[in-house]
Amino acid sequence: MTHNDELTTEQSVSEPTPAEVVERMEPVSADNLRSAIEAILMITDAPISIMNIATALETPVTEIRDAINSLVADYDGADGSTPRGFELREVGGGWRIYVRADFDWAVKSFVANENPTKLSQAALETLAVIAYKQPISRGQIASIRAVNVDSVVRTLHSRGLITELYTDSESGAIHYGTAPLLLEVLGINSLDELPLISPYLPDANSNFDAV
Fold first, then answer.
1. Angle of helix 150-158 relative to helix 138-145, nearest 10 degrees?
2. Among 109, 189, 194, 202, which residue's beta carbon has the most beta carbons within 10 A?
3. Among 145-154, 156-165, 167-176, 202-211, whose mean pLDDT is lowest?
């Protein structure tokens, strides 16, 4: 056995694989189950099903459902306290945290007062895809642009230029469209006034890679 082989053997013994780490995870206790669910909800960009949460936390579905109902009641101020600025909603067979409608004004005020920096080229290209192909999901946008568009879509949404139109009942994917603010920015009354895109597309006989 060579020295490199020894190092490889030592590393494989001392560094557990992700699967081993999950196997060693302590069972989620009743005391921190709600917090664990909140942690998952905070990192998801699409509604997540109770079954997926139960699988991730290795906890019975009934316990996950009870914990989610408890969170909903807590956020809504069921105990007489002031409702939170966000709420937990079931959409398309999954759960996701949303800004409470009563506080949309606060978010719009924050966005309006942000430093009005210019959109990046990536953001402009993504916005064009949404404008011409809406309603369209994040995955479909990524397929067209051949890059990850998560952060760009979040930026466009936070700027109020796009909006969530609906969530697919089967896949749980959110479909986006342009918001009224985009019409104001472009100085047009409707999307029908957008220029035709066909003149800017490559000819069928042209070399696409050269465009």
1. 120
2. 194
3. 202-211
